[in-house]
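Thread: adenosine monophosphate complex, take 2
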Amino acid sequence: MLDKALPLGSTIGILGDGQLGRMLSQAASRLGFKVVTFGPDAGSPAAQVSLASKVAAYTDEAVLARLAESCDVITFEFENVPAASLDFLTGKGAVVAPSSKALRITQDRVLEKSFAREAGIGTVDFYEINSLEDLQGALEKSGLPALLKTRREGYDGKGQVWIKSLEEAPAAYDSLNGRPSILESKASFTREISVVAARGWNGEIKTFPIGENHHVGGILSTTLAPAQVSEAVTAKAHEIARKVLEGLDYVGVLAVELFVLPGDALLLNEIAPRVHNSGHWTQDGCLCDQFEQHIRAVTGWPLGDTSARCTVEMTNLLGPDILEWPTLAAEPQSRLYVYGKDEPRPGRKMGHINRIKA
Ligand code: AMP
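Output below.
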């Protein structure tokens, strides 16, 4: 817990070393903070732009203990960091945000959706699956098609399989290698939107305008923001974000992915306990972007202005898309972000471009 703002020049630790850590580190250094990143890969996107980087497994207690000693606050950019590592850091006297409780709930799709329901937020119908019998029983109730997902560690559409008939159940179950799973009824949504929001140590909340997201092959392709949605949808989405932030006693930035149903009812799909790809548009659409907002929240600084200055379309540059950089860099009214990864493997997030639309 921080009861006053960290002074200029304080040190922030970031668990996770990908592009989100890189952009958090850049935002932190603009405000005069020093950043130490911690992750498994030498020369990672985050390490390239940080004062120091520790290359170690997230469970390496000796390195975690040194991090706890050297940082004024520790945060994370990756939701698959073990929650036990956060508990270890807290046990060593570190200030950690968001909390391990928030991480534990949002790491697990069953706990996450149960939390949402308890907080009065709608979700698709879902069933906990620990065996093929569970799956067969659940498919009798879920309707078809239904989506089987691993409870943990799924991202960008990985660890998910649609089931269209009862006969497909055994193969679908086997394809997830018997991992604890969740069966979800299909949401017949008209649009997918997300809301990125922040809460400070003092309970202050600020919410960014809504983004509308388009996925291709389960991976986010574009976000258009502020989205062309009604005031009622915006108000409902912001209210859901507030319930999530307060229910998790959350400190930092998170994203809530929502399905918009016909008639404009909203269902919560997923909570990302971190800055999020669908919030990258804020780098050019808002005076205070999601990365700076997260740094402000966890360091006890006042939260920044989240109002939109323009409409932005963010497009992810996946794999070889990045090789088009000479053309992209020459585009007017746009800004290119490159993550510093070597190999443009298909589907790998290599960078993004923010195009100003209005
Ligand atoms: P997720 O990894 O849960 O965010 O899912 C990735 C994408 O799959 C979502 O953005 C949706 O487009 C789609 N999806 C996930 N869950 C459902 C569902 N229950 N019904 C319909 N589409 C879904």
